[in-house]
């Protein structure tokens, strides 16, 4: 657990650097929870959950729920929930991955989520994800792989061959985003992508027996490590700040939970593409967990009435070079504190009551609070907040840490904001009064 700003940022940098895919992020969180005494729950088994104990659950290897079963009554005190997502926009490898062009081996890739395409050029890229194969006994087995070293690049076209590139550039993701792997052999069939995966499996898991590569879910990622930057080290630059930053502060918060109040962290996959999957926020994962926790419908609804969900996802900081893209009265500053996200059309699930409670928590800790509202003439993004509120029926707040270059391969956030938000979430998890019930209702 991180008790100082320096410890927190060191842990955040390490966590993001070791989590190139949702599978790796979920595995890392699960390992830290297990080391802290959390018991793993298997969905294939029956459960007997005991107040005072701590649990975690994985689904698809890419989504996770961590739960502290408090000693206080669930019906009276509810559950303090925090939601985040494990996925980030990226380039994913296509099933027939090998492409041969002009004497080079390349990778066929597909765009995942709202990628800032231009930021993927001229980066030292590696490959990571999950591989499923036929094992020695004939059964399917999955393992995570990570090449770690840079093995690919998407080279830009020289300006001499495109004189208008700085005035008018559009990117064709099918034709122009294929990463370069190596020179092609005289016999082009000498290299196959399954053979490359087999070699990587044998490197990472010595002695493993693989009869056949069946399939894979692999992503490209930038190998540049996260770093504290700026003359005063005021900023953190990294890939996947959206939204592994929120996953990490949620993890650090629930690891510090004392155990009197019930609290829950849910980190789901596929938010960047709509969350509609078995392990996404639009799927049944959280609702099914709550059903097994509180089987009786009336009791579960009463507990939800006393509960609250905070959806933690990055917010847009006001960009000094593009101030006209922001509402002048709602431009969060990096290191200005966590941001309450508001949208009249329910792209965010914030209400006056949920934001009011958050402001009280921040005020008690001396943490400044900011607000974000999109320009009225611009469309607003969304989060798992409205989805969870609709699927589960729990009062919800959307908050986040102000960020630049969201969905780039290299995003930028303040080096103080995530730690400040973690302090607020720890107080929220420990709050003795049912957060979902408000006076005057």
UniProtKB/TrEMBL annotation:
Pfam families reported for this sequence: Peptidase_M18
EC number, as in UniProt: 3.4.11.-
InterPro entries the UniProt entry points to: Peptidase_M18 (IPR001948), Peptidase_M18_dom2 (IPR023358)
Root EC class: hydrolase
The entry's keywords: Aminopeptidase, Hydrolase, Metal-binding, Metalloprotease, Protease, Zinc
Cofactor requirement: Zn(2+)
Keyword Transmembrane: no
GO molecular function: aminopeptidase activity
Similarity comment text for this entry: Belongs to the peptidase M18 family.
Protein name in the entry: M18 family aminopeptidase
Organism: Gilvimarinus algae
